[in-house]
Specification:
homodimer, two-stranded antiparallel sheet
Chain lengths: 599, 599
């Protein structure tokens, strides 16, 4: 059974050779004294935690799942999860990128990104418990009152308490404007205090035995709320009320009433939650809850992309071990291991294609994810408003791509890596089919991938007449011009430049069509997002290839492998865009022409 | 929860309007007195059995799974499976296409194809029990001695007994040449009797409580066997030895030692089988077992394609019901159901794209599958040697396409239909995630899809210099020429003709490359198969569109829907070939260049 090897070398390559993160971070007041050794050392330790503590619990957590005691409404997580969480808190990991004002270590998000990738590789279901806390932390940090911050942020930072986001109701997920949970003012209570009543579903980490308190961020309607999405407010509703001294007080009536039976992520408790007059306090302005929640949602979307990045890496590692070990058939070009009864299956071209697909998506994704984390570090910390705006715009553009492109790729890659195992891939004990099942949810939650594509094409690209897209386009353009005379780079630069031109034309064409008929956006968005994802990946793969070419005489096989993987990406993955551009251009009529009754 | 509606109208369309099966079948001596009403009536009853008996057991069967009593080696199937099987036998269904010489009804395989599609839609795991029997029946029918036929075929035909195929061992699946199970002659026993010893894994329906006996067809080595695949013989090994009077005798030591824990098809018992000196008799010639087994294997490959066809149809039906019922968000072009709080999600273009993908793959697949069944009916029954050869060649060409293209499409389609349900698709009770899990095995067993692609490109296409491909090409060419002046058909004919030209050039190019380096076949085969699959689907979709155009003034909405689905196929699915042809042409070097150690 394969174990997990943290991809530290590749993370260091991206951080220090591709992105020069320490130089970039030092320009930011908050990270002026950062150094590469610190980043590397933290990630080395973080990798150990992922590999040694979390990875061994992944398969057993899937098999055992969570159990609800219906009498007490308490949930028991799989064996070992609680102890792993205690080690996580003990190690100070929850505080990694937290605000020092609340006990955080103040490290850049670049570090947190890499740490979470490794935890997701090792155990997505477990990692969702602290992952949800991050969202709650960020939302309260951005929109909470001073009292709310003082009450909750130190405990979320230390990991003593965890958080959730309670959005979905049985009749509405995508369309939160329809939600019905009510929040009513409490006579005599302090201003901003409400009693919440309603039902939520699909609440990840909604109840568990890892922490002393669970801080729920809940969307609900005030009595005077307008209908629709402009009548939604955000509340913080703790599992246990918090006493004035900060200690855990009486049980608040927000209960887990059932656990969902899911395809995967069995180790995470996906809860139906009943709010039965639970006490909560308002976060941010009345009726402005959706906007406040989107702070959390954007971070969560990047987090979901990171989950699939982690699964892609893990699937790759497991499949490589198997493909080198398993012997079956001879190479079509003659025996490669004549001393054995058959050749290891890694000699077969299509086995390599499946492996390299996962590898190229993992390494390309890692580069983009760390790049985006660095942009967020800039957005959060720079004093330069132009730089902040530039970073924020790029993050806004890249967020739906990271969410949808990574998770679609994760589904492809985990399925390919399962296939490398043949029939054994379908058997639970090998752990491959779990990666596929876990990966499937990532295409759905925090906004389905269709919603991401509408966000990208409709809002982020066409919504500002392509201004954000042009910002990314300028990076591509600059790189293409810089390398235009570099003979060795032509194999990468030419297809990159070509795709850049095509996406520019495609965007203009879709904008014109959408002006005539808004449904055209819905007809093309999913294809468009995938083309945009490839543009971004092609850019990073070309940049990585440039470094690998420069270092190819170094004798370090890392660069040889990087160059081969870049060539694979351009030869075997990027050409998908040829079909996608055609389908994006073929319009919405073939989708809408058929009367609903004929389906 | 959606129920299953047998697609009888579409089956009738394919049989009677597209393929004229009754006229074709009447030309065959064995089916001279067939008539359309009989075919339709049988399928109507078969559809009832699938919808009313099998479909209600699908989800419960998945949840319960099979259990092994380790003391007795007996397997209990999920609640209701045994009773359903009794009804199946009672109804005479196992005999449908069986040879009348052994109690069969002698109906054409066209009927059996449609019946199995419906059973697969309703319950793939259950349908594998009788499905495996078919393979054993066909293998013994083709290669068994008179005594073996007399002993086994009547009971397999009646369904009193079921069958299996025991090929895989822990160390070999694809590469059966390495198998180790031994068969030793028994001193004093009748000639052709052996004792078999060894271990088999992944034996579907290997043990169960549905039937009084289980007839295993087992690959093993004789003592004097040459090494490799030329030293494999085939044996029939019953669970219970059969007495001279045909009654069930003593227990033969071929035992289920464990059940596999699988991603899906939980209702089917996937067994590890121990042969501990089990008595078997030789089927066919010594050391020629693989050839004999391939009779079974080819039928099984078509059967696996049919499983995914069934799942695709079922996923489509369930997702359509949900998409019409679930309201969420407004159409981008304005409210379509202003009286409701939101529009049904079927108004959203991408939801329609996901639904239509499943529909186009199901209906295209149904046309090809019934066409292929008719070819097999001809191959088995015609007196005309030229017609037999033509049919056999086309079946050989189409078999890997049906196996791999249908099952890849089934994976895509079931996943898309799950996505239509949003988060609910991930929850077990809705039944969608089961369809995805069940569909995943179909890409693996009976030869992985990579093996199918090597069979297609290496053996079926390049192996005879494109002769079989040209036979299909002539059908396309004739249709293109016949419709070349039909203005209404240009939207279908032009892309079909274009793809035909491209695949001809691609084939020639790959043949030249493979001549230089056999690994080029392995580098291009998977992409090539998908392109070939689209050529075949485009041909059938164009033919179906022609009929729909002719009938478009009939007032029957069936033809309107068919035409819209054809247009969708050409606009949104076929263009995938643009990318696939590029990757197929980009060669094997990007796959093989990287040293194994660098993975």
């Amino acid at each position: 059974m394969a174990t997990y090897t943290p991809p530290l070398r590749d993370m260091q390559f991206v951080m220090h050779e591709l992105l020069n993160v320490t130089d970039e971070l030092k320009m930011l007041p908050r990270h002026a004294d950062i150094d590469a050794d610190t980043l590397n050392a933290v990630l080395e330790e973080g990798g150990k935690f992922a590999a040694e503590v979390l990875a061994p619990l992944n398969l057993s957590g899937d098999m055992e799942g969570c159990t609800l005691d219906k009498a007490t409404h308490e949930v028991r997580t799989p064996l070992g999860f609680k102890d792993a969480y205690a080690q996580y808190v003990q190690g100070g990991w929850p505080a990694l990128s937290g605000d020092p004002a609340y006990g955080g270590q103040g490290l850049p998000l670049v570090v947190n990104q890499c740490f979470y990738e490794m935890m997701n590789s090792a155990n997505q279901a477990w990692t969702m418990y602290p992952g949800l806390s991050h969202g709650a932390y960020e939302c309260l940090h951005a929109h909470g009152t001073e009292a709310q911050k003082a009450t909750y942020l130190p405990k979320l930072t230390s990991g003593e308490w965890t958080g959730t986001m309670c959005l979905t109701e049985p009749h509405c997920g995508t369309d939160l404007g329809m939600l019905r949970t009510k929040a009513e003012p409490v006579a005599g209570a302090p201003e901003g205090t409400y009693k919440l009543t309603g039902q939520k579903i699909f609440i990840s980490a909604g109840e568990h035995d890892l922490a002393a308190n669970i801080i729920h961020l809940v969307l609900a309607r005030l009595p005077d709320a307008p209908v629709g999405s402009k009548g939604i407010s955000l509340f913080v509703v703790p599992k246990f009320l918090v006493n004035a001294d900060g200690s855990v007080g009486e049980r608040n009536p927000i209960f887990c009433s059932a656990l969902e039976h899911k395809m995967g992520i069995h180790g995470n408790a996906t809860c139906q939650m009943m709010l039965d007059g639970a006490t909560g306090t308002l976060v941010g302005q009345p009726h402005k809850g959706l906007a406040a929640m989107f702070v959390m949602m954007n971070a969560a979307r990047l987090g979901v992309g990171n989950q699939s990045l982690g699964l892609t890496e893990m699937a790759y590692q497991k499949a490589v071990v198997y493909a080198k070990d398993r012997i079956q058939m001879r190479s079509l070009s003659g025996p490669k291991s004549p001393e054995k009864a058959a050749d290891p299956i890694i000699v077969h071209p299509d086995v390599r294609k499946m492996l390299l697909t996962a590898r190229a998506y993992a390494e390309g994704g890692r580069a983009l994810a760390i790049y985006t984390a660095l942009l967020i570090d800039k957005e959060l910390s720079t004093d330069d408003e132009d730089e902040r705006k530039e970073a924020a715009d790029l993050v806004a553009l890249l967020t739906p791509i990271i969410k949808a492109f990574f998770t679609d790729n994760g589904w492809l890659a985990t399925s390919h890596c399962l296939q490398v195992f043949g029939g054994h891939g379908y058997i639970r004990e090998w752990g491959m089919e779990q990666l596929v099942r876990d990966a499937r949810i990532n295409m759905i939650y925090e906004g389905t991938n269709t919603i991401q594509s509408l966000d990208l094409l409709g809002r982020k690209v066409l919504g500002d007449n392509g201004a954000k897209l042009k910002k990314f386009g300028r990076l591509v353009q600059t790189f293409v011009e810089d390398e235009g005379t570099n003979e060795d780079m032509q194999e990468f630069i030419n297809p990159l430049a070509d795709l850049g031109d095509k996406i520019t034309k495609l965007t203009t064409e879709l904008g014109m069509k959408a002006f005539q008929n808004p449904d055209e956006v819905g007809g093309a968005a999913v294809d468009y997002l995938r083309v945009a994802g490839h543009l971004v990946f092609a850019y990073f793969w070309a940049r990585m290839a440039k470094i690998a070419l420069e270092k190819k005489d170094s004798g370090d096989p890392f660069y040889t492998a990087k160059l081969h993987t870049a060539r694979f990406y351009f030869a075997k993955l990027l050409p998908e865009t040829a079909g996608l551009i055609r389908t994006a251009r073929s319009g919405v009529a073939p989708l809408l022409a058929m009367d609903e009754a004929l389906f």
